Amino acid sequence: MSATPEDFTDVEETSRRLGIGKRRLRDGANHQGYPHHRFGNRLMFSAQDRAEIADMHRHGGRVARRTQRRPLARTAARAAA
Prior knowledge:
This protein has helices at 11-18, 22-31, 47-58, 65-68, 76-80; strands at residues 9-10, 37-39, 42-45. It is mostly helical. It has a three-stranded antiparallel sheet with strand order 1-3-2.
C-alpha cells in the first residue's frame, strides 16, 4: 500500500505527535539520518517515518558527547590536596 498525501505530516505536526522539538526533528532529518521526504522545500514525514523515528527514540540514539569524554587527568598538585 503506497502512502497518499494525506498520510504525510509536516515538521510542526510530527514534532507534536512524537513529543520532540521541531529543531531536533529538523536536525535529525538533515544530519542524523531520520527517515523523511521532501516535497519541494518542505520536510514531510509519512506514518512509517514517524514510527521509525519513535523507535529510534525508544531505543536511544547516540551517546551524548559529554558522556564520551574521559575524566581529566589529576595533576600532582590536585592529587596531594
